[in-house]
Design brief:
Blueprint (H helix, E strand, L loop, with lengths): L1 H9 L1 H10 L16 H5 L4 H12 L7 H8 L3 H12 L3 H19 L4 H7 L5 H12 L3 H9 L1
Length: 151
């Protein structure tokens, strides 16, 4: 019910992100985690694509190379790129960057970490790279965004 309200007010993308945040191990069997909402968001149960997306999510702080990721999920780099284009409507690089910028946004909103610490926690080599990507997505620098929260 809350996710429906969030989707109505803020859109499907935010509702899916919040849904993912709420996933936790089942109490009766801690070894069987809940399924990711990626399959629901994508409208696909392609396990190789979902595994690649989960690897990205799990490795935001130290981004993985696409070659390594495709090897780990058992398909070629080109096939992984095709799956992303077909189901996600963006390249793997764009998706990975979107995850990183979204994490930076959340950290700016929810923590007192410095922008430099956030850049490092999101896998950026420096603040400049974070600033560029953050501005493209949110039309504001991370510092300006944070100042808006303090007012």
């Amino acid at each position: 019910m809350m996710l429906d309200m969030i989707e109505g007010l803020h859109g499907r993308d935010l509702a899916v992100i919040i849904s993912d945040m709420c996933l936790h191990p089942r109490s009766q069997n801690r070894e069987a985690p809940q399924k990711s909402a990626y399959s629901a968001a994508l409208g696909s149960r392609n396990q190789k694509l979902i595994n690649a997306m989960q690897m990205m999510q799990d490795n935001i702080e130290e981004p993985m190379e696409l070659e390594y990721m495709s090897e780990q999920v058992g398909i070629s780099r080109r096939q992984l790129e095709r799956l992303f284009k077909k189901y996600v409507k963006m390249t793997p690089h764009q998706f990975y960057n979107d995850l990183r910028v979204s994490r930076a946004h959340a950290l700016l909103s929810e923590t007192n970490m410095s922008v430099t610490e956030i850049a490092m926690a999101c896998g950026y080599s420096g603040v400049g790279q974070l600033n560029k990507n953050f501005k493209q997505r949110y039309a504001s620098s991370p510092s300006r965004f944070r100042k808006g929260w303090k007012e």
